[in-house]
Design a protein that fits this description.
Keywords: Membrane, Transmembrane, Transmembrane helix. With 189 residues, the protein is α+β, with helices and mostly antiparallel strands. It contains six helices and four strands; from the N terminus they run ααββαααββα.
Length: 189
């Protein structure tokens, strides 16, 4: 393990585990909460797609679009006449606004638990330690940008690549992990 400037070991492995767990558990909550509603909303579209010989859109991928929308990552799809259209399905009223609470909540709790596990009491050290969970969160966030993408011929639809990597993979875990870590250290013994 590497040491921080304060001489304490940086908890790389626990941070990675907490980050991955925050991502996976959050997606699981979104899936369990929204999958049936997503299936119902996709039923008509999937019937047309299958009638035309295409593959139906799986609910797990469409739930992933909501998951990324909760990080303010746009869902993008091809526009008629070329180009791309970007939308946020939550903001447009196609899903509960409460989904926006999940990424900060899971990352705050993750940062809090990580810092509590290493018993830091200085809020600055706690914030720095909390940011380390971003390493575990970033990898599945970056993979998810591609896993939740549907490709047909030369077109695709799914989470926006750049904002998916930057917002969901870096900004959210760094900011909210740091806040959770600072709170844990400030309220520690």
């Amino acid at each position: 393990m590497s040491e921080s400037s304060t001489g304490r070991d940086v908890p790389w492995v626990p941070a990675a585990v907490v980050g991955i767990a925050a991502y996976v558990l959050q997606y699981l909550v979104v899936y369990l909460w929204q999958a049936n509603r997503v299936r119902e909303q996709l039923a008509g579209l999937n019937a047309v797609i299958q009638f035309l010989g295409g593959q139906a859109i799986p609910a797990w991928q469409a739930v992933g679009w909501l998951f990324y929308n909760a990080h303010f990552v746009s869902f993008t799809y091809p526009s008629l006449g070329g180009g791309r259209t970007a939308t946020n399905l939550i903001a447009s009223g196609n899903a509960p606004q409460l989904l926006y609470v999940l990424p900060p909540l899971f990352l705050l709790v993750g940062g809090y638990l990580l810092v509590r596990s290493v018993s830091l009491v200085d809020p600055t050290e706690g914030a720095l330690c909390g940011t380390v969970l971003s390493l575990g969160y970033a990898i599945p966030a970056w993979v998810g940008v591609f896993a939740f993408r549907i490709t047909a011929e030369s077109n695709w639809l799914g989470p926006d690549l750049v904002t998916g990597i930057v917002l969901a993979g870096v900004v959210y875990p760094v900011v909210f992990g740091a806040v959770g870590g600072a709170v844990a250290a400030a309220t520690g013994d």
